[in-house]
């Protein structure tokens, strides 16, 4: 049966009020397309910062409210009501009406999310994307929420590209602030012996476990803990990675050395360029030397080692 989609274009500043009004038309079948805080929302919802390039290029000043009406409801009445209420509230709007099927609006968002080659060795693969060629790359299967994309945020790409150089069959990897577990699971796909993730968010830890299992790794290879930095972690690792914000990296520098083997590397990302000197000062204070520095679109990634 054909459903009706009503798509309402408004200013991002008005989208919450516009959504509330749309909810009066139908108490179900609504979603809001708002890119004004895309990066933050992606992290909060899915604990992953790979976002499709097409999404990143969306107009951040405009938003859309999508309303879906079942076949027995009259779209003409709904449009008239919406138009009248938006005019009364002073909300500038554009309303389009089209026909779609139920399964279309439930799954159309997946069209944005395609397989993503990262670096020279990795392919990130949303499980519904059947049209991809991994070549000689290792394939990370992932079933993300709506906020995951395939364009690749610079911080995660920098980390993955760097991990390629340092992960081998003898690697033990600790991922602090693991989010969805993508870095640890990719480490295992690249040949690491084991990977441990830790995150303060229990939902992130749950997703990390799920992504590990999806890629064929059980608890003998991948473990995720709910905790604040390393308060639940023990042992020493040959690679420690932290793709988190500068302030947390600065705070973590005083403790991370206790979890590093003698020749281990500490890889940090998520650092915006204006915080570079603050982070470097923390490295120096706590006995680390920078051996690599990488930059992409204002984001920085460092590889450090403990000074002899």
Name the features.
single chain; alpha/beta; Alpha-Beta Plaits; Rossmann fold; 2 domains; 10 helices; elongated
Major sheet attributes:
7 strands, mixed
Q: Please give the alpha-carbon distance between the first and last residues.
A: 70 Å
Total number of strands: 14
Radius of gyration: 23 Å
The CATH homology group name of the largest domain: Vaccinia Virus protein VP39
Low-pLDDT segments, ≥5 res: 145-151
What is the SS-derived class?
alpha/beta
Q: In the CATH hierarchy, what is the class of the largest domain?
A: Alpha Beta
What is the string of helix and strand elements?
EHEHHEHEHEEEHEHEHEEHEHEE
- The outline comes out as elongated
CATH architecture of the largest domain: 3-Layer(aba) Sandwich
Total of DSSP H or I helical runs spanning 4+ residues: 10
The average pLDDT value, as a whole number, equals 84
- What portion of residues is helical? 25-40%
Q: What is the number of independent domains? A: 2
- Provide the spatial order of strands within the biggest beta sheet: 10-9-8-11-12-14-13
Enter the CATH topology name of the largest domain.
Rossmann fold
Percent of sequence in beta strands: 25-35%
Describe what this molecule looks like in 3D.
With 308 residues, the chain is of the alpha/beta class. The chain folds into 2 domains: 2-110, Alpha-Beta Plaits; 154-306, Rossmann fold (3-Layer(aba) Sandwich), CATH 3.40.50. The protein has 10 helices and 14 strands. The protein has helices at residues 15-25, 38-46, 53-56, 75-89, 102-107, 154-166, 182-189, 202-214, 246-256, 276-285; strands at residues 2-11, 30-34, 62-69, 94-101, 116-118, 122-126, 138-142, 172-176, 194-199, 222-226, 237-243, 260-272, 288-296, 299-306.
């Amino acid at each position: 049966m054909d459903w009706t989609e009503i798509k309402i274009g408004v200013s991002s500043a008005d989208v919450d009020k516009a959504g509330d009004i749309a909810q009066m038309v139908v108490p179900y079948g609504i979603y809001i397309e708002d890119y004004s805080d895309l990066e933050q929302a992606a992290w909060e919802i899915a604990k992953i910062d790979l976002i499709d390039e097409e999404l990143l290029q969306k107009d951040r000043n405009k938003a859309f409210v999508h309303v879906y009406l079942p076949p027995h409801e009259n779209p003409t009445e709904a449009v008239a009501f919406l138009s009248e209420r938006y005019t009364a509230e002073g909300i500038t709007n554009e309303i389009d009406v089209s026909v779609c099927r139920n399964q279309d609006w439930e799954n159309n968002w997946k069209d944005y999310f395609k397989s993503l080659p990262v670096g020279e060795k990795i392919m990130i693969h949303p499980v519904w994307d059947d049209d991809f060629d991994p070549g000689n790359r290792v394939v990370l299967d992932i079933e993300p929420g709506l906020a995951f994309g395939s364009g690749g945020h610079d911080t995660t790409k920098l980390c993955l590209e760097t991990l390629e150089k340092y992960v081998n069959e003898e690697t033990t990897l600790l991922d602090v602030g693991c989010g969805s577990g993508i870095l640890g699971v990719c480490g295992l796909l690249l040949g690491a012996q084991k990977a441990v993730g830790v995150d303060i968010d229990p939902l992130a830890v749950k997703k990390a476990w799920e992504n590990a299992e999806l890629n064929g790794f059980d608890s003998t290879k991948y473990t995720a803990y709910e905790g604040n930095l390393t308060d639940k972690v023990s042992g020493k690792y040959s690679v420690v990675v932290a793709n988190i914000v500068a302030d947390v990296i600065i705070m973590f520098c005083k403790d991370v050395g206790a979890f590093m083997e003698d020749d281990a590397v500490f890889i940090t990302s998520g650092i915006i360029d204006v915080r570079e000197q603050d982070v470097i000062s923390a490295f120096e204070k706590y006995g680390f030397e920078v051996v690599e520095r990488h930059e992409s679109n204002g984001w920085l990634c460092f590889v450090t080692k403990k000074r002899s």
